[in-house]
Amino acid sequence: MLFTKTKKEAPADEVSRNAELLIRGGFIHKEMSGVYSYLPLGLRVFNKIISIIREEMNNIGGQEVLLGALQDKSTWEPTNQWNDNEVDVWFKTKLKNETELGLAVTHEAPMTKMLTEFIRSYKDLPKAIYHFQIKFRNEIRAKSGIMRTREFIMKDLYSFNINEKNHLEFYEKAKEAYKNIFKRVGIGHITYLTFASGGMFSKFSHEFQTLTSTGEDTIYINEENNIAINKEVFTDKIKKSLGLSGNFKEAKAVEVGNIFTLGTKFSDALNLKYQTEGGENKSVFMGSYGIGPGRVMGTVVEVLSDDKGIIWPSSIAPFTVHLLALGDDKEISKEAVKVYESLLKANIEVLFDDRTGMSAGEKFADADLLGIPWRAVVSTRSISEGGIEIKKRSEEKGKVIPLDELLKMLASK
Amino acid sequence: MLFTKTKKEAPADEVSRNAELLIRGGFIHKEMSGVYSYLPLGLRVFNKIISIIREEMNNIGGQEVLLGALQDKSTWEPTNQWNDNEVDVWFKTKLKNETELGLAVTHEAPMTKMLTEFIRSYKDLPKAIYHFQIKFRNEIRAKSGIMRTREFIMKDLYSFNINEKNHLEFYEKAKEAYKNIFKRVGIGHITYLTFASGGMFSKFSHEFQTLTSTGEDTIYINEENNIAINKEVFTDKIKKSLGLSGNFKEAKAVEVGNIFTLGTKFSDALNLKYQTEGGENKSVFMGSYGIGPGRVMGTVVEVLSDDKGIIWPSSIAPFTVHLLALGDDKEISKEAVKVYESLLKANIEVLFDDRTGMSAGEKFADADLLGIPWRAVVSTRSISEGGIEIKKRSEEKGKVIPLDELLKMLASK
Fold this sequence. Notes:
Chain A is α+β, with helices and mostly antiparallel strands. The first copy, chain A, folds into two domains: 17-306, BirA Bifunctional Protein, domain 2 (2-Layer Sandwich), CATH 3.30.930; 321-411, Anticodon-binding domain (Rossmann fold, 3-Layer(aba) Sandwich), CATH 3.40.50. Chain A has helices spanning 17-24, 40-59, 73-76, 108-115, 164-184, 236-241, 265-270, 293-303, 330-345, 360-370, 380-384, 403-411; strands spanning 28-32, 35-38, 63-64, 70-72, 91-94, 100-103, 127-136, 151-161, 191-197, 204-211, 217-222, 227-230, 249-263, 273-275, 281-283, 285-291, 305-306, 309-310, 321-325, 350-353, 374-378, 388-392, 399-401. Chain A has a five-stranded mixed β-barrel with strand order 9-10-13-11-12. In chain A, α1 (17-24) packs across α8 (293-303) and α2 crosses α8 (293-303). The radius of gyration of chain A is 24 Å and the shape is elongated. At the A-B interface, β1, β2, α2, β3 and β4 of A face β1, β2, α2, β3 and β4 of B.
């Protein structure tokens, strides 16, 4: 039995749709502005998104590690990014002896530094190394639910190649892996590869932008080429350099992923060199590839929900089916337990609403709010019609089918 | 191919055996004093320990969540634990508007606070809720490798019951779950349930102490009852209150887990009440149950290693078998690749040492250092004898067996 409860209202200070629905559904809990807990339902979704990302990173040769969240000054000084004027979202803290430490904003520098211990020769390259680790960002405002928080887990992968040509080959693979991720979590059809500025790490970058009216970014979409340009760099010069002409459609969007060419910025600064076949010492050519599973989860809620609640894609839904026992009499309860046990036995992920003393309307409303892809109802009517009423969250009408058919149908989902 | 390399030496400032072997083997990387990265080999071990802990927590009804690492003052003030004199290992930081935040030392208070939103009535109890989340401890010294670090992931479970009686029933179950964990990771035979002081959270606690000459603690073992008492509370009064008499053997040990009865300390302070069947408001009775998978991993290395390296128990070994191709000629390489692919196909976790230009001695030394339970060697000799030489890490002698026998044998491990 879940310890969470659904709520009628989200906290009054929550203005974002994702926070409202996720808090009301008991997926997340707000600890303070910009800091959320993941509750059992939310953690299931979160972990499924993480698994999809991990699979795609492993498919392009990524090796998983786990770096620390505490960072030291010496790591970020060579690129001048310890400076609060250069990187303005640091949280800093201190050891007992007054030594300053920083909380990971990102991990380019410590990853580069670590690799100096393992890369010596061209034979040690290429490498692609990633982790899922908390980032801390000292944001002035945190008003977008789990889409912009002061701490969040990010998958960041770093690529290490002998030169730009090999780097760009990997970069194209990473683009495809990112496209796969967004397709698999159910937002591929509204997510655009978007040319953007590089922020603090490089001149330009590619963002993945998902269309939503609540998005913080404005992008210009070129449908012919299935690509977009972020408003911040939408100039004739850039259009020309990308070989894009024709129509651009303005749209609001949210950034769900970001990939950068870093070049030799970090390897020069932190002395990550390799010896070429000819014996020459050269700087490693790097790239950086980020995605926040929480941001992805929040975006899915923003774009895949209706006025009743969330509509999870089955790939990341907390459960496959939401089983509701309607009415408190013994026959119904007995039948519902039988269905529940059959689903468990068939390895179908099921959430069982066996709460008593609640009306059908209340249970339906909770099921709509939680947004599990299938709703299975055991009631006097369904029993009299010889089965269970099954309905898709995304459809209006259900139908009554016998248990064996239900098991067969859901096993294939 | 792993990006890590074995090393002849650990950093000069590492004095602990676990850090020395884990760094030399490429399991972990030292970022700074008290902060380590987990490299691919180390992360595999770490995740296997986490899986075992998670299974045992789920078995006693634990529900998994994920709370934040940033904490606010108001959460810890009611128990006076925001005060740096009361809790002397805080790392503190600040928002841009100067609001002070703390980095999670532990999560009793935020977990209690969160539960006030979900617990109303005796019907909502009991509950057991846990997470795996980073803790930050501003330790003055951090000299024990991954056994005492400034940041580390901890599994902390909190139990919520209507009264002490029900709490103690759960507490006994948690004890058994902890015993299972230590048994499963291979240190059950040298780990003692140990009566100890309660530190900052309660009067007394139970620690799980693993015998090792490098341990920071001294315990007194009562073999007859398979229980120990920590030196800090080893008095006649305590012995009497526990009903223990007879012989006590002094030993050095390291604390690998810790369980506390919290009582109503946090629920009183943070107003976590429930309504009894009779309509009365009462404080929830709580317990706290901690274990650090990194500390467990370090302890396993301290106690299960020899002068050549680590000897992983198969339950948490990074791989089941370490396959070595000895000699650089084509026939050996072809045969080794065939064995490797057969192992992969049979779903046996294999690390393949296909490095060229290395002597048999160097490869054997690395295999011993890495400590994978089985070593499989393909060499001119093994091929001439019709198979692969298989040897246990913990034994001196191996034997040559054919491939099908190897697959059969390892599949059952």
